[in-house]
Amino acid sequence: MESDDDRPRPGPELCTEAEVERLVHGFYARVRADAVLGPLFERHVDDWPEHLAQLVDFWSAMLRGTRRFRGAPVQRHLALPGLDAGLFARWLALFRATTAEMGNPVMREVADAAAERVAGTLLARYRVQSGRPDDGNAGA
Ligand code: HEM
Description:
The protein is mostly helical. 64% of the residues lie in helices and 0% in strands. It has helices at 17-33, 37-44, 48-64, 73-78, 85-100, 105-130. The chain has six helices and no strands. The chain has one domain (11-130): Globins (Globin-like, Orthogonal Bundle). The longest helix is centred in the C-terminal third of the chain and has 26 residues, at 105-130. Protoporphyrin IX containing FE binds at residues 37, 40-41, 44-45, 54-55, 58, 71-73, 76-77, 80, 83, 87-88, 91, 115, 118-119, 122. Keywords: Heme, Iron, Metal-binding, Transport. It holds the Pfam family Bac_globin. It comes from Coralloluteibacterium thermophilum. This is Group III truncated hemoglobin.
């Protein structure tokens, strides 16, 4: 079994800022082209450059341990109507397809694990808010 110490960690050596940007921009290109997620994002994002910059800061924190990100992801997602396990699974599938093409397997491992963890937290919080705590699984 893999111990905690063998697992790759976030840090500046995991990937470059340019790789973080490539991940975020590549992922959002997929999201915006997606028949289900695309229209949902278009409805809720007014300022794409600002959103992308915010997401670069978020993923830079998750992957490289930088501290630029200032945001409130839980509150932002709680305010979105109609999120469910199917949407989160779709989001994760597009994310994993993007990290798989990055050519940096260690970054991919850390990014996929972080995405799954955060998706699980966001979905759990969302369900508590909407009174349906036990409805399926985002990662499945
Ligand atoms: C079904 C899945 C998801 C949908 C539809 C979704 C949609 C959105 C939308 C529309 C916004 C902009 C909200 C606003 O500016 O008011 C947003 C913000 C954001 N999302 Fe998601 N999201 C999903 C899952 C995730 C996951 C799994 C992560 C992280 C791993 C994530 C990270 C973020 C972050 C960091 C922000 C910016 C928060 C802020 O500005 O404070 N999202 N999301």
